[in-house]
Design a protein that fits this description.
Blueprint (H helix, E strand, L loop, with lengths): L1 H9 L2 H56 L6 H12 L4 E8 L1 H7 L11 H9 L3 E6 L5 E10 L20 E10 L1 H58 L13 H33 L3 E6 L4 E4 L1 H7 L3 H4 L14 H14 L1 E9 L5 E12 L5 E10 L1 H15 L9 H18 L2 E9 L2 H8 L1 H17 L6 E6 L2 E9 L2 H15 L3 E3 L2 E3 L3 E8 L6 H17 L5 E3 L4
Parallel strand pairs: 15-16
Antiparallel strand pairs: 1-4, 2-3, 3-4, 5-6, 5-9, 7-8, 8-9, 10-12, 10-15, 11-12, 13-14
Helix pairs in contact: 2-3, 2-6, 6-7, 13-14
The chain binds guanosine-5'-triphosphate.
The site of guanosine-5'-triphosphate (GTP) has 15 residues, from strand 10, helix 13 and helix 14.
Protein name: Diguanylate cyclase
Keywords: Membrane, Transmembrane, Transmembrane helix
GO molecular function: catalytic activity
Length: about 575
């Protein structure tokens, strides 16, 4: 059975269709042939039966004649009658069988007149005609009919009871007629042969017709459209031209629908490919580095921005864990919190320090997202990061510019104001003194005018350095603007401390500066005021120190003055 199934699966649709159609026709023709032969056999049997009955009738009539003429008691006459009648066409054997009443009245008669078999006995017992197909000793086919003779006043025109002492209606005897069916069987065989020949010729014809028909149907409706569809598929695959579509034949529902479904599929593929290309472009052109890992956190893809930022090639990173980039700046606890947030919320973003291939450590802004499948299982992690070194530098620069003077790198007026306020609060709390010195370069305009603004700038930077060297680390110097400086001296004992610093500054300023090829000497006019002696708050302190400085200017410059109340 399995072998047949395998063979069946191996053959093509054309052959399958052919086998099914022709197989069905062969079975139908067989049934038809059987039916026709059966009909003929029935006809033959009926003809033989009526032949037998007629012969039996003739025999009875003959016997009656012998009875009526008183010749029946001579066995020779009876044999002669049987011999004569046996000569009739189609009679194979003819016998008279004596019934019980005849045997009792006239004796057993000739041996062949005794009941010879069960069929004879059954007819004598029942009085009913029996028919049986038999095969004669020489092999011929025959029909044997045993017809009973019934004792009656009028049995087919004869009063049996006139001579027979038998009960009316009892069986007097029977006639066994065997009809030779050789001729009919020969005819039937001939008909069978003709039917077979006709059948075979018809099947050969059908073989050709069905073959042509099936081929035509398959080729036109299946093979040709399938080949066409296949060619289109192959072209699309070869050219990767997803804008192409297969021809749809509305008159061929099967393949037409298949082509339509194929077109829908290609359309979806085209859309998906376009989206994929778009994402691929984004991936390649993004200025942000992108890293994709699998669920085990092994890298499966990195983009060009990643290569640019980290210095690692894509090949070097494939299959590696992104922690190879770790700078060691973050603690284990930091990473634990990061993974916990990621697992709980599906995303994390923050600042992190990583290490480039060349060993350089850099800050990056990192965002990690978890990708899950429809079962909720993590399948990928996507990380995006950008190198924020420049941003951080810019922030630091903005921060610096907000609080420091860009030229001298000294605290600016805003930062100084803060420190002054804080210093006064501390001094007030601790009962200490704080001094504010106001310094203005003398005739600085002349230097600018003479040597240019750039030389003036260089001089301002050098002056700032020198002033710094005259005070403690904890003291604050600020460039107020232009050529003006302020110095905040915290925790001083009294005016002497301030005077010492002022004279120190005047002293260091006497040394000439080398600006390019020019040797320059500049001086300061310095004014000072002390908290809480000269002023109760920051504003007044500045104002008073400024006032003192003006007095120094008025006193011929290059000198130091304390605030004096008018
Ligand atoms: N090179 C340079 N010059 C500056 C800067 N800011 C202000 N100045 C100049 O510094 C000079 C200050 O002059 P003043 O303080 O008004 O006058 P002075 O010439 O110093 O004379 P006195 O203060 O009266 O002794 C001006 O010429 C300003 O243009 C700066 O950042 N760089």
């Amino acid at each position: 059975m399995n072998v047949i199934r395998k063979q069946w699966l191996r053959i093509g649709v054309q052959e399958k269709l052919h086998i099914l159609i022709q197989g069905t026709l062969i079975i139908l023709f067989f049934i038809l042939m059987e039916w026709v032969v059966d009909r003929f056999e029935v006809q033959i049997d009926r003809a033989a039966e009526s032949h037998a009955e007629e012969t039996a009738d003739g025999l009875i009539n003959g016997m009656n004649m012998l009875m009526l003429t008183g010749q029946v008691s001579d066995p020779g006459n009876r044999r002669l009658l049987l011999d004569k009648m046996s000569q009739s066409r189609g009679i194979a054997e003819l016998r008279i069988i004596r019934g019980r009443s005849v045997v009792e009245q006239f004796g057993p008669g000739l041996p062949e007149e005794q009941a010879a078999d069960a069929m004879d006995r059954e007819v004598l017992a029942t009085g009913k005609t029996l028919f049986h197909r038999v095969t004669l000793a020489d092999g011929r086919e025959a029909l044997r009919v045993v017809v009973p003779f019934i004792a009656q006043r009028n049995f087919r025109g004869t009063d049996c009871l006139a001579c027979h002492s038998a009960e009316a209606g009892s069986v007097n005897g029977a006639a066994s007629v065997t009809i030779d069916l050789t001729e009919e069987e020969a005819q039937l065989a001939e008909i069978k042969d003709l039917l077979w020949i006709g059948h075979i010729v018809l099947q050969v014809l059908l073989l050709v017709i069905i073959s042509l028909f099936v081929r035509m149907v398959i080729v036109r409706n299946i093979s040709r459209p399938v080949r066409k569809l296949h060619d289109t598929m192959a072209e699309i695959q070869h050219d990767m031209d997803l804008s192409r579509r297969a021809d749809v034949d509305a008159n061929n529902p099967d393949i037409g629908e298949m082509a339509q479904s194929f077109n829908v599929l290609v359309g979806k593929l085209e859309d998906a490919t376009a989206r994929l290309q778009l994402f691929a472009k984004m991936f390649d052109n993004s200025s942000e580095a992108i890293v994709i890992t699998d669920a085990q956190r092994n890298i499966v893809a990195v983009n060009p921005a990643f290569v640019e930022i980290t210095g690692y090639t894509a090949d070097e990173m494939m299959g590696k864990n992104p922690k190879v980039l770790s700078s060691g700046k973050q603690t284990a606890e930091f990473y634990n919190t990061m993974w916990m947030t990621l697992n709980e919320t599906g995303q994390w973003s923050g600042e992190i320090w990583n290490r480039r291939k060349n060993g350089e450590i850099y800050p990056e802004w990192l965002s990690i997202g978890v990708v899950k499948n429809h079962r909720g299982e993590t399948i990928n992690y996507i990380s995006l990061f950008s190198d924020i070194t420049k941003r951080k530098e810019a922030e630091q620069r903005i921060e610096f510019l907000a609080h420091y003077d860009s030229l001298t790198k000294l605290p600016n007026r805003a930062l100084f104001a803060d420190r002054l306020k804080r210093a006064l609060v501390i001094a007030s709390r601790n009962g200490k003194k704080t001094a504010l010195m106001f310094l203005d370069l003398d005739k600085f305009k002349d230097i600018n005018d003479r040597l240019g603004h750039l030389a003036g700038d260089l001089l301002l930077q050098s002056v700032a350095e020198r002033v710094k060297s005259c005070v403690r680390e904890s003291d604050t110097i600020c460039r107020q603007g232009g050529d003006e400086f302020m110095v905040l001296l915290e925790d001083i004992a009294g005016a002497d401390d301030v005077a010492k610093v002022a004279h120190k500054i005047i002293s260091v300023m006497s040394e000439p500066y080398q600006i390019g090829e020019h040797s320059l000497t500049v001086t300061f006019s310095i004014g000072a005021a002390i908290y809480p002696d000269d002023a109760g708050d920051d504003k007044a302190l500045i104002h008073h120190a400024d006032h003192a400085m003006y007095r120094a200017k008025e006193s011929g410059r290059n000198n130091f003055q304390f605030f004096k109340r008018a």
